[in-house]
Every structure is written in C-alpha cells, then in structure tokens.
Amino acid sequence: QVQLVQSGSDLKKPGASVKVSCRASGYTFTGYAMTWVRQAPGQGLEWMGWINTNTGNPTYAQGFTGRFVFSLDTSVSTAYLLISSLKAEDTAVYYCARVDDSKDAFDIWGQGTMVTVSS
Amino acid sequence: SSELTQDPAVSVALGQTVKITCQGDGLRSYYASWYQQKPGQAPVLVIYGKNNRPSGIPDRISGSSSGNTASLTITGAQAEDEADYYCNSRDSSGSQLVFGGGTKLTVL
C-alpha cells in the first residue's frame, strides 16, 4: 500500500544537526512532490516547504531558509530533511507528506518524527 | 502569524451539525484543503478542491467556499469526529502555502 515511513525520534544538543528521513513505497516516488510540515509541542501545523522529486528543486517557506535543507535519494525513494545549528525552538514533530497535484493537497502523511533539542 | 484564520475551538452536540471556518485573502483565488488530526496521530486529508473527499472519509464531512472563507461542515457529528481540524491553502501572493491555526472540535 502507499505509505511514507519516517525515521525514529531523535535527541540532539543545541548546535548539532539532525537528518530526518522519509521513505516512500507503493507508488512512483518521482511522480509526486514531497512536503515537510512542523508541529511544535501543543501547537499547530506549519508548512516548511516542498521538494520537486523529479528535479530535486526545493522551495522553502518563509522562516525555513538557511538552516533547513530538503534533499532526495531517488534510488531508495527517500526524502530527507536536514536541520543544522539546532535550537531549543526546533523541538517539534516533523512530518513528510506526499503532494498530489491533482488534488492540490497533501494526501499521504508519514507518521512523524519527534526531534528534541536539549542540553 | 497565519494568513488563514480559524476559530481556536468549536463544540457540537452529538448528532448535530457544525461548521468550521477558515478565512484568508488567498481563498478568493484558491481552494482550501482540510486535515483532521487526532491526538498523537498524523494529520489526515478529509476535504480537497471544491468539495472532494478521499476514499474512506465519511460523507457527513463536506466542504464549501464563498469569498474569502472556506468551510468544513460535519452533518450529524459523531464522537470519532472529535479532533483538531486544519485548513491549508495559498497565501495572498499565491507563492506560498500556509496552514490555518487549527480548530479544536469537541463533540458533547
């Protein structure tokens, strides 16, 4: 079945980096863009941007430029989110989701990855 | 701050009808999509486009739009509809996507 499986929870110290993975299965990976969404504890959803899985071209939302990098490895149908110079306020659940252009919506979501930044 | 505005909380009696709204300038040009999120779970797409439901979403959930407001209506609310609901669409520039702040729906 169509699914996105994300990497497990991670605990990092401030200033470190973290790479979250999102492995797709059950569909043609390059047929759909991938988006990333952040949810801080007790807060709402924030759109971080997306990546074109054909070209690898990323688009970042305002507020998610500089320390956030989207990348791909199409050979293993996996998208990555790299966050560098981590801060306490980066503590959140990070979701990947498939972008269905025909629906103009995010139709399949990963289970989420909790990233905790603490000294 | 979000360019899509939602009421933080709404309640409905079991079996009654409730409308959750989402306001924003971008909604004059673009449809909203709606996501349901239950505690500890990933969001689930429930409405997209003019009024389309993905497979598996009950037909008591519907969507509509007028002017700068998109709405999600649940007709005959059930206990399992209790969740947070988020709208998503483009901002007024059309170049960025944005989520509304979310509405916590309580079924009494």
Description of the structure:
The complex is a heterodimer of chains A (119) and B (108). Chain A has 119 residues and is an all-beta fold. Chain A is 0% helix and 52% strand. Chain A has strands spanning 3-6, 10-12, 18-25, 33-39, 46-51, 58-60, 68-73, 78-83, 92-100, 105-109, 113-117. In chain A, the strands form 2 sheets. In chain A, strands 2, 4, 5, 6, 9, 10 and 11 form a 7-stranded mixed sheet that branches. The model of chain A has no long low-confidence stretch (mean pLDDT 97). Helices cover 0% and strands 45% of the residues of chain B. Chain B is built from no helices and 10 strands. The radius of gyration of chain B is 13 Å and the shape is globular. Chain B starts with a strand and ends with a strand. The mean pLDDT of chain B is 95. Chain A binds chain B through residues 35, 37, 44-47, 61-62, 95, 97, 103-107, 109-112, and chain B through 2, 30-31, 33, 35, 37, 42-45, 48-49, 52, 54, 84, 86, 88, 96-102.
Radius of gyration of chain A: 14 Å
By secondary-structure content and strand pairing, the structural class of chain B works out as: mainly beta
Query: H/E element string of chain A?
Result: EEEEEEEEEEE
Helix vs. strand class of chain A: mainly beta
Q: What is the share of helical residues of chain A?
A: under 10%
The CA-CA distance between the termini of chain B, in Å, is 30 Å
Q: What level of helicity do the residues of chain B show?
A: under 10%
Q: Biggest interface and which pair forms it?
A: A-B, 19 and 24 residues
Which short descriptors sum up this protein?
heterodimer; A: 119 residues; 4-stranded antiparallel beta sheet; 52% strand; B: 108 residues; mainly beta; 6-stranded mixed beta sheet
Give a quick summary of the entry.
The complex is a heterodimer of chains A (119) and B (108). Chain A is an all-beta fold and 119 residues long.
